[in-house]
Amino acid sequence: MAELTILDVGHGNCAILRDDRGAVIIDAGLGETLLEFLEQREITVIDAVLISHADADHIAGLLTLLAQEHIAVGAVFLNTETLRQTALWHALLVALTDARRRRAVKVHAQLTSTSSELLRRDEIEIQILAPSPEIALVGAGGQPPGDRPLLSANAMSAVVRIVVNEIPEVLLPGDLDAVGLEHLLAEYPEPRARVLVFPHHGGRPARADPEDFAARLCAVVRADLVVFSISRRKHATPQPEVIRGVLQAAPGAHIACTQLSERCAARLPSAPPTHLNERPARGHVGNACCAGTIELTFGNATPTYTPARSSHQAFVEREAPTALCMGRGTFVGHTPEAGEGGEQRPSRRRGLPVAGK
Amino acid sequence: MMVAEPEIRRVAIVDDDPSQADVMSELIRDAGYEPIILGPRFEHVDDLVSKIRKSADAAICDHRLQPRGFARFNGAEAVAALFEVSVPSILVTQYIDIDADVSIRRWRRHVPVLLSRDEADPDRILQGLNQCVRELRGEHLASRRPWRTLIQVDDTNQESGEQVVDAHIPSWNPHLAVRFPAALVPPGLNLAPGAYLFAKVNIGADRAEDLYLFDFERAPDPESEGVLLG
């Protein structure tokens, strides 16, 4: 039996994989939610922390995790970022130095497709699909041969795929943008997974068209559950064009944002939602959760997850009058065609079984 | 409206402004408590704590008590002292933006609830006192729970004759600097610009004025310990 918890950390990413061998953390966003989760699940040993890239909303939590004397971290994997000069990045280097010297944490300055063999577990495979080692050698800010676009830190995001009993279950692509997606597809033309944690929180994929990017990504991943890890109060994500691309390419997928976007509901519920699971979630403050923290359980023929799709969608129906995932919101730049009426209710022909139904 | 903790019946009002004390008295009555206005002046914080323990079950304190000669200490110090003897207390002020960084943050660890004057209504008072009671039991909200983390000193300055530290708490918000009294940091720790320290901080706080820091420790020094920084 294994579980993957996609934490509501506000704007940012953080997921925890747990199996019989221990725990692996994939990205560590801002705030205390990760530490609360570890305490709630009585986890004091972390086998590895995988960092997709060094943006604050993916690494800030690692700084605090490494400072907890009661939590043992085995290894940290992340790619070099030679151009990054942020105070947070420098602080992380100090924290890693302290952790490596004083607590014997193994620091791996590479997280590429050749790292997968170091992350092998029993029935769980943690695959790193991107970047390739050659792209990592070019590095963020560098230009690959052949007059290709410069690589941004987002394009260099490590793309992690969780495979359980040889079934690709979850794709966690950090803040992958359109340039990164092309590099990914050059190596893995069909990076399928049943669950997609949508990159960059549903924000703009650099210069690419958001709808085209979302549609292309969803068409190759073919996920049944698409998660957006967002904050209600930051960056106005997900972008409506992104949701439109998801609905176009994966019309039956369950779209689940961790928090209730202002685009979907001008007001928050007056009482705490009842559909959420019991895991910590940043959005518990002020009733800002939409799906909140999402927990997937593997080990049966098909994975299950909470909160259940039915109860989450009932919440959205009730509390989100302009819900983008229900086709209710205003799609910027979208002109409804005759008979379409601006309402695009997705069909529900596919979907993962959910717990608690 | 939330249900009040049953053990609280009488709430002491500590305010140097009689008109504000009267307003607060009405709010407390509307919240379902019996208000007791204290005065006329207090020399030591222990005198106030002693009087509150004899006459009330909880307290609401204004922060600036000194200008009119009401007390020789401020409300944050009084609330922290009341916390130490398990009296649930709320701090109220109309000077949050001015006082939160130094004179309030010095005591903020033991000030569970800070309200601006315009936030203070019967519901907030009820919720606030209930939060105080829970925190006194050791049940912290996520926003009040301290975690050990790394902070970086930006600079030290003077504010109102007191040495203060401007620092970043990257795991809380890497884009905002936070000011706190240097007196919170034990002597001997490096406060030079760029220095790192470990401290316990409630990194789940939403607002900068709700942050508190304590248990400072040395952290690796990038200059002298070979951490390869720019």
Instruction: Give the DSSP E fraction of chain A (strand runs of 2 or more residues).
Output: 15-25%
The quaternary state of the protein chains shown equals heterodimer
What structural class do the secondary elements of chain A suggest? alpha/beta
Number of strands of chain B: 10
Structural class of chain B: alpha/beta
Largest sheet of chain A: 8 strands, mixed
Q: How much β-strand is present in the residues of chain B?
A: 25-35%
Widest sheet, order of strands of chain B: 2-1-3-4-5
- Measured on Cα atoms, how large is the radius of gyration of chain B? 19 Å
- End-to-end separation of chain A in angstroms reads 20 Å
The largest β sheet of chain B comes out as:
5 strands, parallel
Question: Total number of helical segments of chain B?
Answer: 5
Q: Helix share of residues of chain A?
A: 10-25%
Number of distinct beta strands of chain A: 14
Largest interface: A-B, 30 and 29 residues
What is the ordering of alpha helices and beta strands of chain A? EEEHEHEHEEHEEHEHEHEEEH
Low-confidence stretches of chain B: none
Q: What is the mean pLDDT of chain B? A: 93
Characterise the protein shown here.
- The complex is a heterodimer of chains A (357) and B (230).
- With 357 residues, chain A is an alpha/beta fold.
- Chain A is built from eight helices and 14 strands.
- An eight-stranded mixed sheet of chain A has the order 6-5-4-3-2-1-13-14. Chain A has a six-stranded mixed sheet with strand order 7-8-9-10-11-12.
- In chain A, a hairpin with a 2-residue loop joins strand 8 (159-164) and strand 9.
- The longest helix of chain A has 17 residues, at 87-103.
- Chain B is elongated and about 60 Å long.
- The longest helix of chain B is centred in the middle third of the chain and has 15 residues, at 122-136.
- Chain B has 230 residues and is α/β, with parallel strands linked by helices.
- Chains A and B meet through helix 1, helix 2 and helix 3 of A and strand 6 and strand 8 of B.
